[in-house]
Specification:
about 300 residues, mainly beta
């Protein structure tokens, strides 16, 4: 255990598990994780960083400061690039395939796709929307994005043209698909290994929410996303306080959530052919179940 004189604003763990980045009010510290201590090996002077995130390979670190994204080299701590384009606070960022692009979602209702290897700074690929976004995520190839609006609607955007499997002829880009979820959401994860979109719901109102979540304030809301976003979803209560952090393991088999009380819950996703995809799953206290689909049939997750 390590105590700091300052309050950490955000923490990111290196994919190797041997290093971590901690954002404070006036700096980001890069630290080595030892058996019984954390040792600082790098210091990046940046103020008011709201959150940090390592790339898949761990060689880059993205830091969000208001509407700006700063990308650093993990080992030299040097600045690689700076992305400016949002007009309001950034709520979510996602590293994409090969760590060559970053997707960002802003309160301003804009989704940006940034190319970190572009020699000449250019305006990124983007999607504008009139309603502010709360958070979002994307497929690793950037073909689809899933964002949640302040109107409590989950939106699926497609950025590639559909292809007829018989003729091979390209069609039109699919229109955005909206699914009302009737609850506020703080985080969105896309689990491509399990074909699931996993949302962290932070609050709800009305008798329906209390009934669905058994009075819990923090719950996971899960959607099947293949071949497209399913309009049906399932709600699984987890925390007695709002979920403030969520992450997915590299193989998509584990989801870890944390809440305001400092409680961590680890969810293991396993294959199962017992429960149909859209069945009403019985929930046991402490052992909820999540269903999804993949090429091998239905699956469940238990924790």
């Amino acid at each position: 255990m390590k105590y700091f004189d300052e309050i950490p604003l955000s923490v990111a763990i290196h994919p190797s598990g041997l290093n971590m980045a901690i954002a404070f009010a006036d700096r980001i510290k890069l630290m080595s994780v030892l058996q019984d201590d954390f040792v600082t090996y790098g210091d990046i002077p940046v103020r008011s960083c709201s959150f940090v995130k390592f790339s898949h390979g761990g060689q880059y670190l993205a830091a969000v400061v208001g509407p700006t994204i700063l990308v650093y080299d993990t080992f030299s701590c040097g600045t690689l690039c700076t992305f400016r384009g949002h007009t309001n606070k950034i709520k979510s960022i996602v590293w994409m395939n090969f760590d060559n692009k970053i997707m960002s979602v802003g309160v301003d209702g804009i989704v940006h796709y940034w190319n970190i290897f572009s020699i000449v700074p250019t305006r990124p690929e983007q999607f504008n929307h009139s309603v502010p976004f709360l958070c979002g995520s994307t497929m690793q190839d950037g073909s689809r994005a899933f964002v949640v609006t302040t109107e409590k609607i989950l939106k699926e955007f497609s950025f590639v043209k559909s292809v007829d499997p018989v003729t091979g002829i390209e069609g039109k880009i699919r229109e955005p698909h909206d699914v009302p979820i009737n609850r506020m959401v703080s985080h969105v994860l896309v689990n491509e290994a399990k074909n699931l979109a996993i949302l962290a719901a932070t609050e709800g109102h009305g008798a329906q929410y209390v009934t669905e979540t058994n009075g819990f304030l923090g719950a996971l809301v899960c959607f099947n996303i293949q071949p497209q976003l399913d309009s049906n979803y399932e709600v699984y209560p987890l925390h007695s306080t709002p979920i403030t952090a969520i992450c997915l393991s590299h193989d998509g088999s584990t989801v870890i959530t944390g809440d305001l009380n400092g409680c961590l819950i680890v969810t293991d996703i396993t294959e199962s052919n017992v429960i149909p995809t859209n069945a009403a799953h019985p929930l046991t206290v402490g052992v909820p179940m999540i269903s999804g689909t993949n090429n091998n049939g239905p699956m469940t997750a238990t924790w």
